[in-house]
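Write out the 3D structure for:
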Amino acid sequence: MKNLSSILQDEFIGLKLKVIRSTNPTCIGLSGKVIDETRNTFKILTRNGEEKTLIKENCVFHFTLPDKTIIEVDGKVLIGRPEDRVKRIIRRRW
C-alpha cells in the first residue's frame, strides 16, 4: 500500500476522478478520466465525451488507482505544476 506522499508524486493523467465536494455546486458528482493537468486545473473526459475543466483549489476528489483503490484528495494540496510537485516531494525524502 502506498502512503499519501508517494501517491501525490504520481501522475494523475489516466486516472479516474470524481468530484465529491466543491464550492461550485455544478461540479459535484462530475466524474471521468483525467486527460490533462495544469498548475491549477484538471481536464477530464466525461462518459458522454465532454471535456470539463475543474479548478483544483475548489474541489475534493476521489481518485481510483489502477489497483481499484479509491483515495480522497483535497485539491488544495495538488496546486502547482505537476513536474514541480513531483520534484518537491522527492527532495523531502532525501
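Confidence is low (pLDDT under 50) at residues 90-94.
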